[in-house]
């Protein structure tokens, strides 16, 4: 009987795994063929998020030159490097373009075809355009993967879950808001993938409260403005008359920072320096465990500061008062207070200093006398951010971005560290393209978009939704519609995906944050006793090994690529041993 591997999820993560299987098979697998079953109702490669059937107005969030599905020499892995084109090289477009998601989907489908074609001739891939409902079977025996609308299960020697982002049940607060909306005839759109949301209930000219100022909000903004016939004439938005009026706020009260709009030049900061494999190993080896804020964050903060000041001192020495070698020595030896004093004396301009707390809470202690004053104030904030993020004189910001990528690559080894870091990373490193923020400014000037403030609180009372913020004391916004502009939380317990819930009921372990626990080495699913399942793997954002994304910027180490390679090699070794046993 030919060995069988079932991969649930044929999007970019499943495709990346197949690419690594193809790369490693010549070394590790000489068995009697192999059947790979891909289970996904959406097209292989692009999957749900990058499918062709979505608005062409929706862009990627990265420059085309910063998107690759292929490994390079910076990925710390055992398997061979197999390089390939970035999105811009494949599509033949300007590398600085923010391509639309349809084009990215086409790239991913091409990568999938190439990966399948690179498999040994004895490997056959079968696509099942269905949903997987559950996985059963004994720990030491073949697994059964039950599919929607299929009376018999797929039999698998191994199963890999590459489910990607998942829909979720409403939490208690969302459930209460949804029920209130139902009773009072209001509109409540819970966390969702904006491209999948039905926005038709948001009427022209009607006020709509929007909670969330990240990438889901940007998609919402686009679909409710240009998507309804509006257009831009330079820096002016010309409404179609079909737009609602969006009142947006969030915890920070500001949009994510703009994508950086210049290229790196010169020497890169030598990373990791203060937070690398040795520090991660020490944290993992602590008998009493570790606390993120107490034990991890100081190392992260020092690493990001090192990246920032390395760039400032080596490229802009005229803005410093000390030689880099002297600064570096004192920085390395200093505690937090000593480093702060060092920076104050060596970097005269506060704008050249890295203040992560201020970046994370830009409106803390800031109050405006009226909503109109705040509209002007936040437009000034966004204009300043756009200017800075497109000016190479502030290139230490790009060094911090590289530091964030380096840090993320280490943090994935620690497992579930809570949700704060992932939001902070996205806010600083994964914000919208600059043109989107310029559109936001135009919409604000046109009155189609209004800012509510930080720590936005929403209540449901007197038959309406009300929003307030301490940024504008006393100001209240009322609306009959509320949109939660963010992705669903990727928790196992609230996942709408029946397979994950069944896996949990079958003994799979969850972290305190509700993520599926997996072995950090190869992604095997752990049970509640900490034992890795010999035949089940999981990769992606619903696990405690989640990474910034299934694809990445070239030559930045790609944590997802490293995980894919480790999982692929574990899969091939297992199947090769199985084939040897069968032949003996």
Automatic annotation (TrEMBL):
**What Pfam families does the database record attribute to this sequence?**
NAD_binding_9
Database matches in SUPFAM superfamilies: FAD/NAD(P)-binding domain (SSF51905)
Query: Domain FAD-dependent urate hydroxylase HpyO/Asp monooxygenase CreE-like FAD/NAD(P)-binding, which positions?
Result: 6-165
Q: Known InterPro entries for this protein?
A: FAD/NAD-bd_sf, HpyO/CreE_NAD-binding, L-asp_N-monooxygenase_NS-form
Q: Where is this region: Disordered?
A: 537-559
Q: What is this protein called?
A: FAD/NAD(P)-binding protein
